[in-house]
């Protein structure tokens, strides 16, 4: 429902009118991603190419309430901060379903990018450049009192030219003043700071306290992965990695890292959160390290567009396929372009 000040509220969901998406102008195309709580599609909104995140409603009343609260939190965070290394928020709506619309990034996830490179590693300057993108995004969030809590390669998306990394998925982000007891579904253990999940005995009703330094720990694991292009804690399950990190203070090996990089990584994943640097300090350390590396010799880029109409890889379908009739994928709405488009509701019924 609307209010006189241009803010729309539905339950816990409050949104300034300028961010409210009109479903009639939203069209959904091929699916490009899927998580535990949502599916992401390529789409169009008022002739703009976008990513459309459709959040699953849930089954039980408790689950529905939890998903709605998470949706409201993510929308609030996205509308609150803007930065070149954070995915650009375009708008959201709660009816007929919970939808978040952001800019469309066609470079794929950092996870897929690294997997496609294996066993090769990124050039060190490229790896550190990506790390700077991530650190600057985190510095922006922390300056607004926001903890991401789920920093990992799956939540980092590359631009189409593979030159810039942007942070996405604010579903687990929290304002620092609202930190609370973690649950097993929060984040991914392999990248999570031990203080988020360690089973230290708490008195009944006591909250588990932590601060923004949990993101510094996750950043260290991601930076290690950027440099080595290996899965951290390789050979361990997520739970085994969590147990080793929390109770044995085990970390991936930093022995083969250059001294300055090793210092950054090991300081960020220190056991005591108070000993970890903040992201302003991390950025300065990364910039200093970059200044010590001689510029690489020019090389022909591995990824060259042969024409303006080059075909993008399957995980990042091009917008040319957005409104086309496709019979090979049940998740892609079938739209006859000779008919008058029926809008989001028509697409939604076929793709959700």
TrEMBL record:
Keywords: ATP-binding, Kinase, Nucleotide-binding, Serine/threonine-protein kinase, Transferase. This is Serine/threonine-protein kinase HT1. It comes from the Eukaryota. Coiled coil: none annotated. SMART domains: S_TKc (SM00220). It catalyses: L-threonyl-[protein] + ATP = O-phospho-L-threonyl-[protein] + ADP + H(+); L-seryl-[protein] + ATP = O-phospho-L-seryl-[protein] + ADP + H(+). One of its GO terms (molecular function) is protein serine/threonine kinase activity. GO terms for cellular component: cytoplasm. Residues 26-290 form the Protein kinase domain. Signal peptide: none annotated. The keyword Transmembrane helix does not apply. ATP binds at residue 53.
